[in-house]
Amino acid sequence: MTETGGPASIKAFEERLLEVSESLPKRLRQCADYVAANKDRIAVSTVAEMAEGAGVQPSAFMRFCQILGFSGFSEMQKLFRDSFVGGWPDYSTRLQHIRDMGEGSPTALLAEFVEAGRTSLEGLLKSVEPDMLERAVDVLASAGMIHIIGLRRSFPVASYMAYALEKMNVPAMLHSAVGKLENHHAIRPGDALLAITFSPYSTETMELVEEVAKKGIPIVAITDTIVSPLRRFDAIALSVSEVDFGAFRSLSATLCLAITLSVAVGTARQES
Description:
Layout: H1 10-21, H2 26-37, H3 47-54, H4 58-67, H5 73-83, H6 91-102, H7 106-127, H8 130-141, E1 146-149, H9 155-167, E2 172-175, E3 192-196, H10 203-214, E4 219-223, E5 236-239, E6 244-245, E7 248-249, H11 252-271
Parallel strand pairs: 1-2, 1-3, 3-4, 4-5
Antiparallel strand pairs: 6-7
Helix pairs in contact: 2-3, 2-4, 3-4, 6-7, 7-11, 8-11, 9-11
């Protein structure tokens, strides 16, 4: 903790955020969800910008900071600025410069999304915990069948992983909900579920996760925030933060994690 009682490290901050999130009232929970999904903005944003992003008044965001143990937003911001000193990717400034210079041309848009993707990939090494990645590979590699679900924005990732695992002769089944067909009955003891979902979390994905968790079947999750509801089900969570441009988020880091996980699982099964 800091002198005023706030978290003294990013890890302590994440633990505190996870601890208080479930008990917060609606407005403050909006703050928690926004901060969890946009930790990369804390160091370079004003309290007004963070409050606007969370959809609350600045006074509510200040109250949220105090609940976390900080004296106010400035102290919370200092934690992030100090933690990333020398290596903080000020992508907001760079993307704003590209927008100003390119005026929205296709070439400028390409540069903007390349920059956003590059920053997302750099952040992946910080957001994915090595021990969690090892546990995820162990669980998936030892499963009789890997069941994969990822809908809406997550569907390209889920379908790619199903394809990659099939090519490596790893038993995998894609749950796509096409035609409203459900394959819950196909998930049996000895299998594992790989769930991919980002805020706002897919209802169908969460329902399957809840059902599988009741059966005691292990769950690996690719998700976006430390307060993701998937963590309530003891999922082995791999966190990904995608930098957005113009409210559009690519899947650069998520797909990188997907191919890493697929190849690691395929390699582990060959070695066993």
